[in-house]
Amino acid sequence: MTPPTPAPPRSSRAPGTSKGAVPRLALTRAEAAASIGVSEDFFDRHIAPTLAMCRLGRRCLVPVSALEKWLTQNATRALG
Q1: Region 28-40: what's the mean pLDDT?
Q2: Distance from the CA of 66 to the CA of which of 14, 26, 32, 50 falls in 20 to 30 A?
Q3: How far apart are the C-alpha atoms of 23 and 68, rounded to whole Å?
Q4: What span, in angstroms and rounded, lies between the C-alpha atoms of 2 and 67?
Q5: Cα–Cα distance between 5 and 43 in angstroms, integer?
């Protein structure tokens, strides 16, 4: 009787990504909050109401461009 063959090594990439992954154009609210370093609650209360969002049924997606624009506008106000 031969010993079982070991499983192949797992990839260190996140599930659903590949070497030639397509760049994300929109993020979930949780991903958007994490990308700017705030909690989901803070994001929902203070940031999301000022952004254009794509609503697909219950799912809300934040366009990366809208998030980048918000960051630029708010950084400008805070600095000048």
Answers
A1: 96
A2: 14
A3: 15
A4: 56
A5: 48
Percent of the chain with pLDDT over 70: 70
DSSP collapsed to 3 states, 8-70: CCCCCCCCCCCCCCCCCCEEEHHHHHHHHCCCHHHHHHHHHHHCCCEEECCEEEEEHHHHHHH
d(CA 79, CA 52): 24
Residue 18, pLDDT score: 60
Taking the C-alpha atoms of residue 34 and residue 71, their distance in angstroms, rounded to an integer, is 14
Q: Which residues pair with 63 in a beta bridge?
A: 26
pTM more than 0.90 = no
- CB of 30 closer than 8 Å to CB of 61: no
